[in-house]
Amino acid sequence: MRYDDLLQEIRARVSILDVVGPYVALRRAGKNWKGLCPFHDERTPSFVVNDEKGVYHCFGCGAGGDLFRFVMQMEGLGFREAVERLARQAGIALPEGGAKDRGAPDDRAKLLEVLSLAARYFRHQLTQGRAGERARAYLEGRGIPAELSEAFGLGYAPRGWDNLTRFLKSRGWEPGIAERAGLLKAREGGGWYDRFRDRVMFPIHDASGRVVGFGGRVVDSGEPKYLNGPETPVFRKRRLLYGLHQAAGALRKHREAWVVEGYMDVVSLHGRGHPRAVATLGTALGPDHLRELRRRVDRVVLLYDGDEAGRRAAVRSLEVFLAEGVDCRAVFLPPGHDPDSFVREGGDLERLVAGATPLFDGFLEDLRSRLDLGSVPGRLRAADEAARALAAVSDPLARDLYARRAAEALGVDEARLRARIPRRAGGEPVRGAAPAETPSDPLERAVVACLVHRPTTRQAFRDEGLDEWFGPGPLREAARWVAGQPDALRLAEAPEAVRPVVARLTVEDEAGLPEFGELVRRMRLRAARQEAAEVLRQLRSAEKAGDAERVAGLLRRKAELDREVARLGG
Prior knowledge:
alpha+beta, 12% strand
């Protein structure tokens, strides 16, 4: 298959909605789909996808392109790697030697490949190997059936120090790559040994379903109970959520995520009809986690144990939710239960979630229970804690509403409470990116839009030489690039300055766009007027200099231009 045919076949088989969907919760908006931009922090959706044209554009930060460009931006891949990845997704066999200009895979690609191989190894050990019998019995005892185990790719790292090390070597992998992937550790004095041993293995996937790391749980007893791999170039714990890939469909459907504390809780809840569950990777819930969720859901529900530690953990996360402007509710389970045990014993988790308390109200209730609001010191301390939480709220209206609720709950004067809110250094934080600069010339913009939406006009544009009538800037470059494309616009290959202009025009509605012939008339008229103005300026200069011959020539040209302007309807 020729390279150009490969690209066209990928576009035919893979919808850009399927590529963007795992990262962004999209809602239909006319002919387009809209959601929160994955490339900058925003609260009001400005990210638009046009499935028919296969293009995305953010009206906030200016990011834009086609499905290849999205994969490149989102995953940090080169064009070649993006093509190969989408070809695999489409089930298309790559040409001999791979995609165009195939070279040695970069380090990131190697890490992903060895992690995928390790996941298959762990899976085989669990399902086929004798060493995995204890792990299989453990999962069965926890109520995890085989099909659920398969859905999450659960595996087993056998006992011993170098089982995975020897396996990877037998497949031709250098131990140094596996070490950088977080699978092996270097021995003092030389050599390597397996990081995970005698543990049930939980592959951790990114939003597109690739294995980027692992967590392991001891089968019997031992410390630590859960062990996560280290940070690597592909494994960033502050952004990743366990189960996010498996939960993607449910999150889009319900617009709600349930955050739990353990991997087993996620697997158990999914297996019992609650596929909205995700978990952090042994870290506190942070801003990056919330930004990942906010692109997909409208509300986050925290499911915590009902003991004091669970309540304190929920309260500690309050400021992060307030700062990110995410609607959060908290559910505290009955004493002695975690989400897994609660659902295994028949608990009605849906009912608890339906009655979940807003996290800010839970915070105020915590203050009332811990502090003596009947005393002046107790009330002062409660006001100070509330004021510190309110300082995290960046939206002024939201801060006003929260301050009013806190003042009522704590029995303090609202104005006095506001006065205790710590001031932010440098003023309010800026949310999101500055809007991308939009080329302002409406006529040139309409011509480029016509070229984008109506490919048959591109030859006429070249024949007319209209690019010479454009002013310098991105619209002229965009017009030249689009006019040179035979049909489909391969935005991943477009010049950097051109891509956002073309992507934006592609997702905008072409309704009301004038006919190309009318745009050509307007361009000619404008060019004639501009030249006439320049001739008039030169004429005055020649008259002032007493250059009679030049004056005569300029008068003739001015008359020609005046006739042209009149002919064109000016």
